[in-house]
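Suppose you are handed a protein chain with no further information: no name, no annotation, nothing but its sequence. What can you learn? This example shows the usual starting point.
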Amino acid sequence: MTQYDERTEWYEFNQETIDALLSDGSEADATYTIEHHMACKDFDRLEKAAVDAFKAGFEVTDAEEVYLDDGGTVFCFDIIAERQLNRELLDTDIDALLQIADKHQVHYDGWGTYFIGDDAIGEEE
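A reasonable first move is to predict its three-dimensional structure. Written in structure tokens, the prediction is:
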């Protein structure tokens, strides 16, 4: 898959996720905590990607070792940004993070967030 195809797929994912959240009643004008994910079997490469993500203005979490079903291990970390559900902002983040992932030969594994609205499950529930 070319980098263009990968970007296009992530752009489509961004729009589909925004549409799904809004159609389920999530607040359109809220600020969301967006958690992007990167993973790699090589800790040193992953660490360099984390440094570049931090330099690009993102918050990064400590790397964790995850045990896979096949018995292997992979290291991963989250890249956090506070964003509104704005396609252009998310596309810009994707561009920056795919460039970092490509530079360090790590896997960009997508993003997620939480529903915000009257029907959201709060900490007290």
